Amino acid sequence: MDIQQPQNQNLTRDEAAERAGILTVDSYEVALDLSGAPDPDTAGYRSRTRVAFTAASAGVGTFLDFIHGGVTAVVHNGRRLDVATTVDGSRIHFTTEPGENVVEVDGTALYSTSGEGMHRFVDPVDGETYLYTQYEPADARRVFATFEQPDLKAPFTFTVTAPTAWHVASNQSVAERTDHEDGTATTVFAPTLPMSTYITTILAGPYHYVTDSWQRTLADGTVLDVPLGLTCRASLAPHFDHETLFATTKQGLDFFHELFDYPYPWGKYEQAFVPEYNLGAMENPGLVTFTEHYVFTSHATEAQYEARANTLLHEMAHMWFGDLVTMRWWDDLWLKESFADFIGTLAVAEATAFETAWVTFANRRKAWAYVQDQLPTTHPIVADIPDLEAARQNFDGITYAKGASVLKQLDAFVGREAFTSAARTYFRRHAYGNTSLADFLAVLEEASGRDMGAWADAWLRSAGVGSLRVELEEDDGGIITTAVIIQQGVDPVTGSPALRPHTLGLGTFDLREGRLQRSGGFRMDVTGASTDIPDLIGRPRPAVILPNDGDLTYAKVGFDDGSLSVLLEHLGTLDEPLARATAWAALWSMVRDADLPAPVFLQAVRRHVDTITDVGVLTMILDQAESAVRLYCPPAVRDGEQAALAGAVHGFLLEAEPGSDAQVAFARRLAGLARHGGLDDVVAGLLHGSSAVPGLVVDEQLRWALLQAGAARGHLDATALDAEREAHPSAVASVGHALAMAARPEPAVKRAAFDAALTGTAANGTALSNDVLSASVDGFLVGSHELIDPYYDRYWPALEGIWAERSIGLATRTVQGLFPGAQDLGPEGADSHPVLRTADGWLAEHPDAPRALRRIIIEQRDQLARTLRGQAAV
Length: 874
Hints:
It is built from 28 helices and 29 strands. With 874 residues, the protein is α+β, with helices and mostly antiparallel strands. A hairpin with a 5-residue loop joins strand 16 (208-217) and strand 17.
């Protein structure tokens, strides 16, 4: 059934501010009839909204937002309005009347396969249908009529009709339930506290559901009793480690109760793990949703458990930062995401058994920020977000990881006591309200006694990554006579210098019996372009000087020549996890900046990677090593570096402790490398059991990775892949099968995969879901230039149509995924590659294309230019 989505979906900041100035929302009552969801031919469901609001003045035109499949009735203060003239695309217009206004909207909302709005998923294991909602930043309007902006908060009362056997949940607890003779039941939920539209939620389906509770005695002697719940698909129940999840949840609630000194305010605390989720998780109060990738059906490493704990506590931090106190508009998205990223990691490090949380943060989260902050589209942490389309693009490494890094620096700058005191005042002063940067700076100044204006200008209102490096002079005896930290930085948005204040650590290490061991370390403040280091004067030169020891600040780290040479030779002997992770992160940054040739980095990986004890860092560096081969090695050396890395990883796999996380990490990377050759016999042996590795279990995840490698090498056809999927159906198998099918090195296969991705439709006419679309794109990209490049002539003319015809989530996956970014350095040089010229031409010819679409092309073009410069440096 082809239902056209209404247009007119963007909302500007000015429109939102105007609407907030003329009305105050008092309440929402929303009724959804999901009883027809199990029927795949039912495209939509009935959605009824009653919203009460108070108008500041009468006779003012305004509108509700509703992305729908048809509106049947609009009633304003008891008067039925003409739908034909009232409904304009996704806006429902009316004119305010004096005092209280009530608008009722009755219409059809549409089920989604994009992960936006009401997502519908059919379990390939048992054929059951599952529903959940995802709204951020502005997709509640895909489910019910709403004033879709974060500063128009209100209490919500949800009523849901669904099949009787289904588990139905929302932000609040069930108030009443009525079973009907037709096999359906209607559930009414208690009203919520005031909240923004984008954090409301509905969950419905035959979910597996388990319960527990958490209690805490408050200062007045009363007991706070928080019901806990955990949810996943029924077919995943055997893999659902709810005891571990409840334990982490309780550790987080204990930690935040003490840290924030503000009792958990939202009643129950449930967490649902859902399929085909676009995000890691979403902080809906009372019912947090997570990707079901966190329900581990295959071997999960310690790093995967830590990542899950980090996400759990990130979302829990949002119950205060973001839900209790919410940014007024998306300019200040950092007021929730940066804080949750920092505070969530802090909670993992201090409240759980994962003591290496800051190591993972240094190596993975900050790497994301450094990449994002060097793109032409970088922006200050406090961003300029003129409309919703821009807001959707702002959930990036700047807002999350750079913001968190800056808050970690702030914690060091003002001290933990002042930081915590400011947060507590912030919650008490602005509970259930909306804020901006000025509100947070005000409480921070009160708590610290400092003028935070200059700090905010340097860190929050400027963009770009600065760099720090140590410069030394020595006398003839090797004694340091001069030592300074050189800071460089330019705001790429304004072009002006960006020299920030840093409180950082500086560590020194010496070689003792062939091993790098700490010989000293101290904290210092860095300001301006050059800062003296008096603690080094008069000392023998250390073998390694590590700026940003302890990873307290946000900056790229450069090594002096002596330190770099020693690290490349001896990094594997450095046994301090955070210092080691900081050094590896700096080396990878140098590869991306074309300051360190990729083969030199790869030699260091082959020499030292098996000494890394933290599996999260190990996995990240193996990922970077494969990227170094595929992207940063020119064609003349690529095959040799591929063979050397593949051989080394195979050797590490055979030598790893049986059953260990390291063994699993090496096996998974081996499967990825095997797509490009050199490991055919190893893949076949692991798949068929003829060359088993002691302790290694070829579980679902690894098996599909190996099958994808076999398919990419032309050793598995469609019949074999179909049989594998049918023998063990699951969501993992469905996505793994889609990638493997598209990876086969046949022109007809590549043509079909490209057609499906470009149109969003499979050969049988069904729409590709978000996960299957991404898998098809990833599979298409595996192969030679001769196989893939002929299809790119169709990419550029299709871009604006893709953006106009699909949701922004699906359009982003398509445009970004299909960009021809894996290119080889040719005789024309790094700056004149044909794909760069084509991208530049498209941008020049489409100045009025949507900003978000242009941003993707600009970013992908820049990434390609960077990889070509890296190849040129070899």
